[in-house]
Design a protein that fits this description.
Order of helices and strands: EEEHEEHEHHHEHEHEEHHHEEH
Structural class: alpha/beta
Distance between the termini: 18 Å
Number of domains: 1
Radius of gyration: 21 Å
Largest sheet: 8 strands, mixed
CATH superfamily: P-loop containing nucleotide triphosphate hydrolases
CATH architecture: 3-Layer(aba) Sandwich
CATH topology: Rossmann fold
């Protein structure tokens, strides 16, 4: 799970639970990964798999029930100092899924974009705040005149750009993009994805990109982690994952990707995944690097079958010492 580049953020055995006592439910159960500086790290899974809970635990909206989140070598989960909390607020921002629900309908765009500055940079004058809003709007392709309008006056794509501007105005280093295009029309999705890529190159941003759409993840992500019911089942470089998916759940997600080919769509078979297909009563699963940079959840019997795909390509596995 460790990237060759400098890690900006590290998640170690993270757990996020809801409810109390007997009704306690773990939405995230022992997840570990790291994100390198300047990387776009993808987190993919079905609805309810725990993707958003991980993002909100990193940004401290949800408390961590176990494990820890480390940012720039400092633990930011649990109780932290006020100064560190302010640093996290400035340097880690989130782009939310629904561009309409995440914007205050009663506030003008100028206030929405500048809202974070009121909490973190109280010494700014009105003119300075207005200039920062202008720069943020221009960065996302919107005119400064839009600052005097209300969110309902904009299209879905424009509203999402406003949400991105609200995050950018804080000059963050790390952005959590939680399904940022799922509520948009197909024609607008490419524009927002291209915008995120351009901003990353321009500002040196690091992304945690959360989605259920693997075709989108392939376009924008450097590495992808697959999560199922709060547990990571596979993690690999993007093209590696598409070339040789190992876990049956990953294979299911890949088989469901729609293709712009009617003949292929008519004849393709979408795989199914049943947890009962695993026999873990005697040999429980472990998280293992099966070859460099490719991790998968499984037991010893499954690892033997997983290795065949890679050995057929002439690439040796990682040997446990």
């Amino acid at each position: 799970m460790i990237s060759e580049r400098e890690p900006l953020l590290r998640v170690e055995s993270l757990k996020v639970a809801f409810g109390e006592r007997r009704k306690r439910f773990y939405a995230v159960d022992g997840v570990s990964f790291d994100i390198a500086r300047g990387e776009t790290f993808g987190l993919v899974g079905e609805s309810g798999s725990g993707k958003t809970s991980i993002g909100r635990a990193i940004i401290r909206v949800y408390p961590a029930s176990g494990g820890q989140v480390i940012y720039k070598g400092q633990r930011i989960s649990g109780n932290i100092s006020r100064d560190l909390d302010r640093q996290v607020t400035r340097e880690i921002q989130m782009i939310f899924q629904d561009p309409m629900a995440s914007l205050n309908e009663r506030a003008k765009v100028g206030y929405i974009v500048a809202e974070g500055l009121y909490a973190t940079e109280k010494g700014l004058s009105a003119v300075q705040r207005e200039e920062k809003v202008r720069e943020a709007l221009l960065d996302v392709g919107l005119l400064h005149e839009f600052a005097s309008r209300f969110p309902h006056e904009f299209s879905g794509g424009q509203r999402q750009r406003i949400g991105i501007a609200r995050a950018l105005i804080m000059h963050p280093e790390f952005i959590i993009a939680d399904e940022p295009i799922s509520a948009l029309d197909v024609s607008i999705r490419a524009q927002v994805l291209n915008l995120l890529s351009q901003l990353q190159k321009k500002r040196g941003l690091t992304y945690l990109f959360i989605s259920h759409d693997l075709s989108v993840m392939r376009f924008i992500c450097d590495r992808i982690a697959v999560i199922h019911k709060g547990v990571l089942v596979e993690l690999a470089a993007t093209e590696e994952l598409f070339l040789c998916p190992l876990h049956p759940y990953t294979q299911l997600l890949l088989s469901a990707i729609p293709m712009p080919n009617p003949a292929y769509e008519r004849n393709k078979t979408v795989l199914t995944y049943d947890e009962n297909m695993h026999e873990y009563s005697v040999d429980p699963p472990v998280w293992r690097e099966i070859w460099p940079g490719h991790f998968v959840l499984g037991n010893r019997k499954e690892f033997d079958s997983y290795l065949k795909c890679r050995l057929d390509m002439g690439i040796p596995p990682v040997i446990d010492k």
